[in-house]
Amino acid sequence: MMANKVIISGGGTGGHIFPAIAIANALKLLSPEIEILFVGALGKMEMDRVPSAGYKIIGLDIVGLNRKSLLKNFLLPFKLIKSLWDSRRIIKDFKAELAVGVGGFASWPLLKTANFMGIPTIIQEQNSYAGLTNKQLGGKAIRICVAYQGMEKFFPAEKILLTGNPIRRAAVEISGKRELGLNSFGLDGHRKTVLVTGGSLGSLTLNECMKNGISQLVDANLQVIWQCGSYYYQELSKQIGENLSPQIKLVPFLENMDLAYSAADIIISRAGAGTISELAVIGKPVILIPSPNVADDHQTKNANALVERSAAILVNDINAKDELISQILMLNQSTAKQKELSDNIKKLAIDDADIVIAKEILKILNN
């Protein structure tokens, strides 16, 4: 019997790539003989991350719509046409039977072409507010896997399957690792630890807040794991290197997210959908600073979905320089608030989304 062949397409940020890899891993677990090909965007982080996870990837020469400069969109129509043509060739050469789109601009030409060729498509929408790409593709998709209730306002209700977001299993396996986590960063087990993470690319806002407020956190006897992003690391190291307290661990990227999560008592984070899904499983008190640089401001919508359930504290990006450090200090002082946030975010945890989605893919293939 011939092995099933599935293309998974999308990327641009860790928020799209990590769920894609989680789905691929779950498919391999349930159906070891399945063949999986990734399609991403040339020059984006998926071109490194996917091969390091053990999968083949082909890059399309595609960019997203530049909402700030219309002039920079001049080449976009030509790149789209070429990407549609390249997608057709990729699908034919691979003999794909099904295509999965995880969002991000690379998934649009691939899934559009798959629909045109009569190949079934599945969409995985991570956010509480659907992205432009997925909204356009939803009408033709056979199934739309979502992480939030109320997505009928974006997609046909009969196609929706509430699955939660696939998460990095290795990242959330923290049980019994606290001491190992603290030791790996050279931290003190008698101090409270704040984890600051700006997502896979880092965050200028969070880095500015930390740079200005680090002495207040040290004075409050807190220690900090500060993931600043590789883009910002050199400059930050230069600016504060000699004055950096041993209580502050500045790192460009967190390879072993499980150790950082296990060491943390309070977590400061952007509000990407994949990150929120991980934080719910981790179940620790969280302060969210949604990125304003994402389409449709969907990170704020993601964060509000938690705030409404008293499962997180929200600090708007524009106010973060004035408010974030004081919010950390206040939360550190209130064990009752920490417990409330922790208890409520745990109620939102779904830790088997990858398996649920993989089973749905296999069911459609078998039909």
| Count of runs of 4 or more consecutive helical residues | 15
Indicate the percent of residues in helices.
40-55%
Overall mean pLDDT stands at 92
Q: Write out the CATH superfamily name of the largest domain.
A: Glycogen Phosphorylase B
Low-pLDDT stretches are none
CATH topology (fold) name of the largest domain: Rossmann fold
Plain-language structure description:
This protein has 367 residues and is an alpha/beta fold. The protein folds into two domains: 5-167 and 351-366, 3-Layer(aba) Sandwich (Rossmann fold), CATH 3.40.50; 170-346, 3-Layer(aba) Sandwich (Rossmann fold). 45% of the residues lie in helices and 15% in strands. It contains 15 helices and 13 strands. It has helices at residues 14-30, 46-52, 76-94, 107-116, 132-137, 169-172, 178-184, 204-219, 230-240, 257-263, 273-282, 298-307, 320-333, 335-346, 353-366, and strands at residues 5-9, 35-41, 56-60, 98-101, 121-125, 143-146, 160-162, 193-197, 223-227, 248-251, 266-269, 286-288, 313-314. The strands form two sheets. It has a seven-stranded parallel sheet, sandwiched between helices. Helix 3 packs across helix 4, helix 7 packs across helix 10 (257-263) and helix 8 crosses helix 13. The longest helix has 19 residues, at 76-94. It starts with a strand and ends with a helix. The model has no long low-confidence stretch (mean pLDDT 92).
